[in-house]
Fold this sequence. Notes:
- Strands 6-7-8-3-9-10 form a 6-stranded mixed β-sheet, with helices on both faces. Strands 2-1-4-5 form a 4-stranded antiparallel β-sheet, with helices on one face.
- Helix 3 packs across helix 4.
- It has a domain at 4-12 and 23-102 and 162-242: P-loop containing nucleotide triphosphate hydrolases (Rossmann fold, 3-Layer(aba) Sandwich).
- It starts with a strand and ends with a helix.
- By secondary structure, it is of the alpha/beta class.
- Strand 9 and strand 10 (220-226) form a beta hairpin.
- It is built from 8 helices and 10 strands.
- The longest helix is centred in the last third of the chain and has 18 residues, at 176-193.
- The protein binds adenosine-5'-diphosphate.
Amino acid sequence: MNNNAIQLRSVSRTYGAGGSAVTALDQVSLAFPKGSFTAVMGPSGSGKSTLLQCAAGLDRPTSGSVTVGDTELSKLSETKLTLLRRDRIGFVFQAFNLLPSLTAEQNVALPLRLAGRRPSKAQVREVLTQVGLGERARHRPTEMSGGQQQRVALARALITRPEVLFGDEPTGALDSQTSREVLTMLRTMVDATGQTIIMVTHDPVAASYADRVVFLVDGRVNDELLRPSADEIAGRMTKLEAVPC
Ligand code: ADP
C-alpha cells in the first residue's frame, strides 16, 4: 500500500538546450502523503510553477519520476495522462475561470459533462453544500462575490472527487477576510475528508494553513517547516529572498 498521493523522485526539468538551458527543477524528491496539506513557496523563478505542473501531470519532467497513487506518469501515453488529470486531479487557480453564462450548478457539473457523464442534481448540490453554497446553486458568477466564485471553482474541482487538489495561488485574487474563509474550507477538507492538497502561494498567511511548507530555491528543495506560523514563514521567505543569485 502506497501512503503517498503524489511522489516525485529526483525530478529535473530543463527548458531549452545548450548554453541557454535553464534548469527549473533540479533533482527534486518530495512525497505528499495522502490527507496532507502542503504549501510550496519560494522566490520568483525558484521553480514553483514547474513543480506544480510536473506533479499534476501537466508537464513532463526531463528526468526522474512522478507517481500519482501507484501510477507512474512517465509510463502513460498523452491520452492516458489527460484521463488521469481529468479523473484523479483537481485544480483551482487564482482566476476563478467560471463560465459567466452558466449558473453555479452548471459550472460545477461541467467537468463531468465534458467527460461524457451526467452528474445527478444531488451530487452537484452535495459539493455546493460542502463549500457553503447550497443556497446559491441557481446564481450566475456575476451575481456572486469573489469568495463565492472561488468556492464555486472549488466545488467544480471537487465534483470528480480528485485524489489530489492542486491550488495555484487560489487566494491570490481575494481580500484577506475572504481568503481566510477559503483557506479554512481547504483546511476542513483535509481534516474532515482526508483530501490531499498541494498549494503554491506567495502568502505566508495562506501557507500557515498547511501541515508543511516546502521552500524552493533555484529549483531545489531548500527547506521545509512543519505547521509553522505565518510569522515564521514570512521570516524564512525574507531570508531566502535575500540570498544573492
Ligand atoms: P516560479 O513559479 O517559482 O516563479 P517557474 O517554475 O515559473 O518559477 O520558473 C523556474 C525557472 O524556469 C525560471 O528561471 C523560469 O524563467 C524558467 N522557465 C519556466 N518556464 C519556462 C519556459 N516555458 N521556457 C523557458 N524557461 C522557463
